[in-house]
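Listing S7. Sequence submitted for prediction.
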Amino acid sequence: YQRRVHGISSLARQASMAAANQDFHDVKAYFLKGDGGSSLYDHVSDLFRVLIETRPSNPLATFEQLSSRLKQSKFEQKDILREVKEEKVRGVEWAERCNKSIEVASSEKIKKPKQPTTDSGSDSGSEEEPEPEPVEVPDFTFNAALLERCGVALCSQTELFMLHVSLKTLLHTQSDVRNPRFFGKILGSQKDYFILETELDFDDDEDADADTQASVEAPAEKKGEGANRFAYFVSNEAGGSWTRLPDVTPAQIRVARQITKFFTGNLDAPINSYPPFPGTEANYLRAQLARIAHSTKIAPSGFYVMKADKDPNQDDTIEPDPDPEAEEHLPKKMIENTEYTAPRVQDLVKAENWTHYAPFLLPQGRVQFWRPPRAEKKGSPTGEQGDGGDNEPGASGDGAGSEISEDSDEHQVETGPALLTPAGEDDNVAELPAWTARRSTGLLPNPVVSLRSMRWPGAYSVASGATFFNVYVGFGQKFTNRNYTPPAPPLMQREPHTQRERFDPTIQQEAELEEKRNPKKPVVDDADDNRSSADPSAEQVSEDAEEEELDA
C-alpha cells in the first residue's frame, strides 16, 4: 500500500512539473512576441544585464530610467514624410524634364547641318543655299515590338517613348549627328546604360597627323574610321541627357580582352584590374562596345554587296574579284544592294544565310593593321597573343598577334576574315553553334526570325521581311565556359651577373706588383730612349699582362 501511494505521488509530481514547464514555455513565448525585431523578453534581459554590469546603489530607483534609455537606444526614427516628399520631387523633376524634351522635339523638324560650299568660283551671295535635308529618326517602338515577338523585352512603353523623345532632343543639340541607331542596353550593378550609336561629321584635318607620329605603341584610329567609325552616346535613364563616350584606343581593347569586369553605371568609376586598364569605366564601356559591335553585326545575305573598283579599262557589267591583299576591311568598300529581295523565313533561320557586315577587329586592337616604325628593330610584340580578336569566324581568326621581326624590317601583318563572311562559319562556342535561331509564332502575319549570339550573350539580330536590325541587351561580357582566372604576373627579372670573388693580395704580392709597375729605370743610351718613347704602348701592355697574371 505504501509503495502504491509513493508511486501515485511521484506520478503526480511529474505531472505537475510537466504542466509548470509547459506554462513556463507558454509565458516565455508570449514575452518573445514583439514588433520591429524587439520583444519584452529581450528588453528585460538587456535591462538586467545592464543592472548587473553597472550595479547602481539603488536599482529600484534607476530601474525605470534605465528602461527608458534602453528603449530610446533601440528606437530608429524613420521620416516617412521626408521619403515621400523626396520621391515626389524626383517624380516632378522627371516629369518636367520629359515635358521640356517633348517641347524641344516637337518644336520643328530635325534637319542636317548645312555643308560649307567648297567651290571658290561660285558667288555665295547670289545663290540661295539649299535647305538641309531632315534627319530620319529611328522608330524604337517598332523594333521593340519585333523583339517582344521573339521573347526579348527591351524596356517599358514609357521608356521607349522617352528614348524616342530624348533622341530628338539630342539631334537638336548635336547638329553633327547622322544616322542614329539604338545600340541596346547594358545592365549595371547600380544603374543601366542606354546606348545610342551614331555617325558624326568630322573635320578632315582634325586627326590628320594621328598616325604619322613615330611611336612603338599602336595609335588610335582616326575619327570615322575603323574602331572609331561610330560615336556612342549613353544615358542612365530613358529621357535623360546623353553623354558621348571617348574614342577607343588599341591598348584599351587589348586589355579589355584580358579582364572581366561588370559595369556599375558610373562613367567615372575606376577600373581596378590586372593587367591595369588605361582609363575609367567610360573607356572600358567604349572598348566593350567596339568588341560587341565588330563581332555581332550581321545582316541577311544579299543585303550588302562589295563595291566594284573603278577601273576605266574594265567593263562596268563585270564585277572585279576582291583582292585579298587590298584594304577590303574598310566599310566604304561595301554598299547596300538596291536589288535586295527578302529571303524566306526557312532561309533566315540558318546562320549560313547571314553575313558579317562589320570589319574584323584584329588582335592588335585596330581594324587596319599598323606597322611600327622601321627604326625599331628589337623584338617587341605590337599585338596580344590573345583570342585572335572577338569575331573568330573560322580558322582565319585564330592567328597569333603580330610581332616585329628581329632579322629584317618586315613585320607579320595581322589579317582577319573578309567582309560579308557567312555567320555560319564562326567558330563554335563550348561545342555549341555560335548562333542560335528562333522563329516567332506562325499564327500572326509577317513572322519574325531572331539569331542570338552565343559568344556575346544578349546580342540579337532580328529580321522580318525586308527589315532587320541588331540590338544588344546584356551585361557586356563575353561568354566563357570556365571560371575567370586573372592572368599571372610577368616572370621575375633575372638576377644580375655576380662578380667573381677574389682574395686580397698579400703585402709581398703588392710589393712585387708595385715593383713591376714602377721599375727602376736603368741607364740607357739615346737610341734606347728614343725607341721607348716611340712605342709607349708596349710598356702598358706588359703591365696589364702582369696584373692579369697576378689576379689569376
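Caption to Listing S7: primary sequence and predicted C-alpha cells for the chain studied. The chain has a mean pLDDT of 76. The radius of gyration is 40 Å.
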